[in-house]
Every structure is written in C-alpha cells, then in structure tokens.
From TrEMBL, chains A, B:
Transcriptional factor involved in regulation of membrane lipid biosynthesis by repressing genes involved in fatty acid and phospholipid metabolism. InterPro entries: HotDog_dom_sf (IPR029069), Thioestr_dom (IPR006683), Transcription_factor_FapR (IPR017275), WH-like_DNA-bd_sf (IPR036388). This is Transcription factor FapR. Belongs to the FapR family. SUPFAM superfamilies: Thioesterase/thiol ester dehydrase-isomerase. It comes from Cerasibacillus quisquiliarum. Pfam families: 4HBT. The gene is fapR. Keywords: DNA-binding, Fatty acid biosynthesis, Fatty acid metabolism, Lipid biosynthesis, Lipid metabolism, Repressor, Transcription, Transcription regulation. Residues 116-161 form the Thioesterase domain.
Length: 189, 189
DNA sequence: ATTACTTTTAGTACCAAGTCATAAATGATG
DNA sequence: CATCATTTATGACTTGGTACTAAAAGTAAT
C-alpha cells in the first residue's frame, strides 16, 4: 500500500540525505508516485534539485581541502586565550580519535591538542616545539571531553619559552606536558 | 593578441583544474574565443563537461569521509617490523602536515608517526603510551621524507616497556623520543 | 450523495549546459 | 592561389530540472 503524504515526505528527506545523487525520476519509481508529486514534495520540504545538491556537496569538498589545511593548524577548540599568559581548549573525543578495536583515544591526539595550544598561546607568528616532556596519566575514552589548559612559564637560558599544558576530563587530569618552544624571532633556521 | 591553440589548451587545462566550476561560456569569454572552440578543446583534452566535473568532485568527497576514519590509525607507513624488537616507518611530509604560512611540519605529526610506531612495534593487542620524553631536533619541511626507527628497550620497574624512537631525514636526525608504554596485559583500566 | 478540500497527476512552455553533426568562414603556408 | 588547420555558426537533440495551469482522484463532513 502506498504511504501517506507525511510518511512519504519523511522518507524522501532521509533518502535524499543519504543518497543525494538521485533524480526525481528514480525517486518517483521508489515511492510509486509521479514525478510531479516528488517535485511538490521537494518544494514543500525545500530540498533543492539534483544539480544543486551535487554542487553543494562538491563545494563543501572544495572548502574542506582549504579548510583541512587551516583547521588542521588548531586541534581542539580554543575557548579562552590570553596571549603569552594562558589558554584553554576543548576537544571532544570522537570515533576518529580512538583505536578502532577499543574505544580509547590515541595518544597523539591528546598530544596534538596540547601542542597546538602551546603554539597558539604564544604571541608569535610562528612558534615551534623544540622539546617536551609529557605524561599520559589516564586513558581517555570516546565521547569524553578533554579540556587542555596551557600556562606560559619562564624563558629558559637558551631563549626558549616553556609552556605547561595540563589536560583534564571532568576535572580529572589525563595528561601533562612541558613544552619548550622556539619563537619566530629566534628561529633555528 | 590571442594565443596559439597549444598555449590556449595548456591554460585551459590549468584553469579548469584550478576552478572546475566554470562553464564553457565563461571560458569562452576568458580566452576570447567562441564556445565551440572551447568545446573542441575540451574534447581534444578529454576534459568532461561542467556537470560531470562537479559530480566527480562531489563523489570524491563522498569517499573521503569513509577513508578518513580508517587511515587515521596508522601514521606513516611501516616498512620493517620485528615484533618486540624494532620497527621502521616512513612518512612523506605533504601540505596537510605543514603550517599554512611557512612550510614547516607541525610537531604533532612527527610525534604521531613516532607514537604510532612505538605502539605498532609491541606485540600486544593494545599498547598505550604512558609517558614520553621527546625532542624536536630540527625542523622538517614539506616534501621531506621522515624515517622513524623504533627500538624496544628494557622494562621499567613499574612494568612499563620503554621504546626509543629516532626520526631522520636523509640520515640527519630530526626527532628523538623515549616512550614508556603500558601493555594490554597490565592495563591500567 | 453532494459539496468542499486536499492530494496527486498531466501537460505545456521554458531554461542551462551541455552533445553531436554538418557546414561555412577565416588564417596561415608552401 | 590552392590547401590544410583552425575557428565559428547553426540546428537538432538530451537531461534534469522550474513555473504554471488544469484536471482528476481521494477523503471527509454535512
């Protein structure tokens, strides 16, 4: 039996979201209605036509490529920042961060967040990590939110700046690291 | 003056690669030739029409999403592995690894390669990094190939296994790290 | 059952951005 | 000037639509 209008529209929306590369004609066959009905549905649901859908997916991809380079620069989201003093960032552990077998976050993601933050907190065009001592205090699981706190400490004898980063999940410490940073004015290159 | 055919086709190819969302009409205006000429050019160069180009970019995006989750587990490519003894991995530094402004690799990528290798070299279902001392010895640039070498050392008093990882570009050391690893049999969970 | 209203289908004209094929105009070169 | 490559023009057809109008079918209420 053919479904009701509301039900059909619900499924239509899902179907298009799941497989955006589908024509009205194919949809009409699937739902056993005329092309016109599909088009009426799309209008009511404000779903754009095939070509526009494809285009928007493609544009997204185009932006991703640009964005991947930009966003990659900062791991986690900086929520508080006082240049050359302190900074805080949060990162939610998702599927992409954990070991595929167990759901424990891979160390380098925790590290990346901390390292990024150490770079971001410094008021320099480009700061580089020269050395660091780190410690993973406890495992972080998928779904947990890691809050990393960076504090800028003294300069070392060699002109490096020390940034201390501690990461927490619900106020429980999961990571600690001391980052010795080169700053752009004393580049090693 | 209008360019020669060969020159125009060379530029056309470039242009389309760079901005695939461009119509023949727009191209015709840019190169000051008729639409038909552009179409002849596309045929000779085997460049598909706008809609096909958009579609292929969109499909690429669709695959990327799946891929991103799988590849993430191993950073770099393991080329030699003797379990519980030593391992070697290589990683080519690409655009996705460097700071957008300068072309210097971000520390956490170098770290990720080393950390991954430290995990991989241990003959355990799941090894976790507990602690590590690392040092970035010199900057790594885009295009360089980083070879990471891991050696399994002694157990510590606390049952941790120490893995020493040193990374090189053309036999010049760029990174060194000592990783203290938990092994699955003495899980901390 | 008749009326009223919603939902669906049909049909036409039109559009963008092409393909395919044929023919004519233009340019360069021996 | 003849000849060949290159460019332009023209028309018919294609896909996957939009926009609009009109008719048919289904559903509910009086």
């Amino acid at each position: 039996m053919r479904k009701t209008k509301a039900e059909r529209q619900r499924l239509l929306k899902e179907t298009i979201e799941y497989t955006p590369f589908i024509t009205d004609e194919e949809l009409a066959k699937i739902f056993e209605v005329s092309i016109q009905t599909i088009r009426l549905d799309r209008m009511e649901l404000k779903i754009p036509e095939l070509r526009e859908r494809i285009k928007s997916v493609a544009k997204l991809q185009w932006n991703e490529q640009v964005r991947a380079l930009a966003v990659e620069d900062i791991v986690g989201e900086v929520v508080d920042l006082e240049l050359d003093k302190k900074a805080i960032s949060i990162m939610d552990i998702g599927r992409e961060h954990v070991f595929t077998k167990k759901n424990i976050a891979r160390g380098h993601h925790i590290f990346a967040q901390a390292n990024s933050l150490a770079v971001a907190v410094l008021n320099d065009e480009l700061a580089l990590t020269a050395k660091s001592n780190i410690r993973f205090i406890r495992q972080v699981k998928q779904g947990e939110r890691v809050v990393a706190k960076a504090v800028v400490k003294k300069q070392t004898d060699k002109g490096l700046t020390i940034v201390q980063v501690d990461s927490f999940v619900n106020n429980e410490q999961v990571f600690t690291g001391e980052f010795h940073m080169y700053r752009s004015r004393d580049s090693i290159d």
